[in-house]
Design brief:
about 90 residues; 2 helices; about 0% strand; mainly alpha
């Protein structure tokens, strides 16, 4: 039914050619992986720099947020006090 012919005889590719193709494929895969790893390392480096810059700004941001939050609280408390006094009849 099926003839027992080696595949190599049908393709007529020498062992040296197969070896060269294998080496080329291996080098291509290694180049792609190296490129990907370098790209990832530089992306991580950029992320680390960004986090470092933002960490340096945290104390200032905390002070600003507390000031803003405090002013919002004082406005709300004044409104509540005004609402309570108007209910009691004080103006």
């Amino acid at each position: 039914m099926f003839a027992r012919r080696p595949i190599r005889s049908e393709l007529q590719i020498g062992i040296a050619t197969v070896f060269v193709i294998g080496i080329i494929l291996l080098l291509t895969i290694m180049a792609i992986l190296a490129f990907s790893s370098f790209r990832g390392a530089y992306a991580y480096r950029g992320l680390a720099r960004s986090v470092s810059r933002r960490a340096a700004e945290l104390p200032q941001a905390t002070v600003l947020a507390q000031r803003r939050h405090g002013s919002v609280r004082s406005r709300k408390s004044r409104r509540r006090a005004d609402a309570r006094s108007s209910r009691r009849g004080f103006h």
